Amino acid sequence: MQKRNWWKLFFAIYILVVIKVIIFKYPYEELLRIAASWRKGVIFEGLGTANFKPFKTIKMYIDYSYKLNSVENLAGNVLVFVPLGFLLPHVAKEGERFFVMLLNAFVFVLGIEMFQLFSAFGAFDVDDILLNCVGASLGFGIYRLMQFWRRKRKGLCDGRFTEKD
After folding, report:
1. CA torsion sign, 1 to 89 to 161 to 75?
2. 126, 52 in Cβ contact below 8 A?
3. Is the residue at 80 inside a domain?
4. Nearest 5°: phi and psi at 51?
5. In this predicted model, what pLDDT tens digit does every residue of 62-90 receive, in sequence order?
6. Is residue 160 part of a domain?
């Protein structure tokens, strides 16, 4: 199997795990109960509990860090998307450009958050989008550093970090 195909397999597994962990995190019976309760009012409930104000949840976690599992929530939202930023450049040539990777991460995360908003399988939070995109950016940074070190080790670069690296 070609190297890129392995990366594609890892990427597909990663996406499925993210969907399972974020959207379908509840036990099967609970998911069935939530799905059975879907009515028009569920959408309005989702809108009522959604956070559309940037940094509101992040600030709350910082302010009440002594009471809440803040580190786990904040770090978890970042760390779960580090692999996206690292894997996307391996599976799509266009993903090697930072803004293309970031746009893809944003669209994927926004899709998850919108699904949560309208399905009651979670809660929409704009801070999740911000933290998830930070995670994808960190993953992309790791990808670029590894690429730079690999080229440097092979003697293919002069030590400068350029867009083509």
Report:
1. negative
2. yes
3. yes
4. -110, 110
5. 998 888 788 899 999 999 999 999 999 99
6. no
